[in-house]
Amino acid sequence: MAGFDKRVNSYEEAMAGIESGMTVIAGGFGLCGIPENLIAEIKRRRVKDLTVYSNNCGVDGFGLGLLLEDRQIGTIHASYVGENALFEQQMLEGEIEVVLTPQGTLAEKMRAGGAGIPAFYTATGYGTPIGEGKEVREFGGRHYILEESVVGDFAIVKGWKADRYGNVVYRDTAQNFNPLAATAGKITVVEVEEIVEPGELAPDQIHTPGIYVDRIIQGNFEKRIEKRTVHQG
Length: 233
Hints:
This protein is of the alpha/beta class. The chain has helices at residues 11-14, 36-45, 65-69, 85-92, 103-114, 178-183, and strands spanning 23-26, 50-53, 73-78, 97-100, 119-122, 136-139, 142-148, 152-158, 161-163, 168-169, 185-192, 194-196, 215-218. The protein is globular.
C-alpha cells in the first residue's frame, strides 16, 4: 500500500495492528453486507476483550458469531440478539456485556462519530431503561436524552466495488450500516467483491469517498441467507 493506492494483498495485512481491548465498528445488517472475511481474520488472531458496535452479532458459527466461540467479545452495542443461540446464552449468563441500542441511535452514533460530533440529543429511549442515567433536556416541549457518539480503533466494512483509491460502492440493501461505519474508524478496512481502476466508477455512484478508507482488499464471499423462507405448497 503506497500513497493513494489503498490496496493490500492479504487479510493479515488488512487487519494489521488490531489488539486485544480495542473497539471495532462493524458494518452489515443481520448477514446482509457483513465483512465476513475480516471477521474471520479477527478470529484467527485470537484478540480478546473487544468492544464491538454492530447491528447484531451474526448467527451461530458465522459473521460476528465466530468471535463468540472463543469469548473474544467483551462488550457489544447492538440492536437485537436475533437467532444466535450462543449470543443469547452468553448474555443471560453474564459472560458478555450487551448494551441494547435502538437502531437509529446506533446508526447516528457512528455517523456523528465520523463527523466529529461527540454527542447528540434524541427522543428515542426517553422514559425507558435506555435513557436511565443519561442527561435529559427539553426542546420544543419534548424530552430528549444525550447519547455519545462512537469512533472505533477499527471499522470493518463490506462493499461491492471500489477503486484502488478506496472509493467504495455498496450494492442495494448492503449499504445498511456500512457507509456510517466506514466514517467512524481510526483505521477503516473495506473488503469488496471487485477492485476497478480509478475513473471506472462514476462520481455519483460512490457512497464512501476514499478519504475515509485506509485499506482495501478484494475477497470471495459466501453470502449466506440468515433465514431462508420457502413457500409451502
